[in-house]
Amino acid sequence: MRASGDSIDGAPSYGLAVLVIVLATALNGLLYPYLALANLIMVYLLGVTYVASRCTPRAAILASFLSVAVFDFVFVHPSGTFAVSDVEYVFTFLVMLVVSLLISTLTMRFRQQSKARAEATMQAEIEQMRGDLLSAVSHDLRTPLASIEGSAGALLQQKELTEQSRQLAGTIQEESVRMAHLIRNLLDMTRVQGKIDLDLDWYALDELIANAILRTATMFDHPVRLRVNPDTPLARVDGVLLEQVFVNLLENASRHAGRSCQVEIALGGGDGRATITVSDNGPGLEAGSGARVFERFVGADTRGFGLGLAISRAALEAHGGSITASNRAEGGAVFTLVVPVGGEAKS
User: Final residue of a domain: which of 194, 219, 244?
Assistant: First the structure.
């Protein structure tokens, strides 16, 4: 496997290692009359560095051992043998080998780190380009969709419409609203995929929840119940983003538990955090799907892309909180949100 985009693998890497040591030996043969042996070692170390920068780790190790062996065989007296007349050269060989291996290791590590940084940078640029493109397209679609929704609503106000025309206009309005919802989720997803810049301020969480209930009131046959602990403190959060989390959870309940389900939201606090549960009496979650429901596209169907819960988890984590899903003992699903309240609000 290649260590970088310019690395050489397999047999060619070993061949290059041998060739580099041969060339280093030839160069040292020219320099031998003029330089001390210690300087000739530098030429071999330079060759080992080059091999480590281009080849596999094993080829670099081969170059390290080969440079020591060739240096001993060619330049150390008596030349032409691996015998050593001076015991001090044994220490020289050991140092040369250790330095060669150290250079190889550091060079390989540097290559791997450079590759990782390059891949991370490229991935970040791709994500940025994809997010920018998706955001631009989504924004361009919102205006015509709003016009379609408004026009359909105006048609529905016309008394002279036939029943068939009224149904068609109703379908147009419903589908335009659904498409606007999908686009909003796509925009939210592009926002939470990278580093989220939160617009923090002090909010009463029950007011954010109440706003979300009002926004989704038409999705349920029965009013959503809200139970609030009066001792729940204010929370320093991104109000727009957190309100959207509650909207996503209510939309999820309507989609999977049905319009006729009874949804209850309970808000409590303590130990520097607020705990919110959103429960319904629907069919509940599939066995073992408690964590998977927060993955992108897991809940995708003909009505959406399955991004709502993924966005909710990213938003909660950006606040330093969490969200989990499970089934209630009496039936139905329950989502538990934990939001740090950020201390007491300043007067």
Answer: 194
Q: What is the pLDDT of residues 323-339, one digit of tens each?
A: 999 998 888 999 999 99
What is the domain range of residue 292? 200-340
**Tens-place pLDDT, residues 264-315:** 999 998 888 999 999 999 988 887 666 678 876 555 444 444 577 888 888 8
If asked whether residues 136 and 224 sit together in one domain, one would say no
Query: How far is residue 285's CA from residue 333's CA, in Å, rounded to a whole number?
Result: 6
Residue 154 has pLDDT above 90, yes or no: no
Residues 183 and 90 in one domain: yes
Q: What is the pTM assigned to this prediction?
A: 0.52
Query: Is residue 282 assigned to a domain?
Result: yes
Does any domain span residue 123?
yes
How many Å apart are CA 342 and CA 346, to the nearest integer? 11
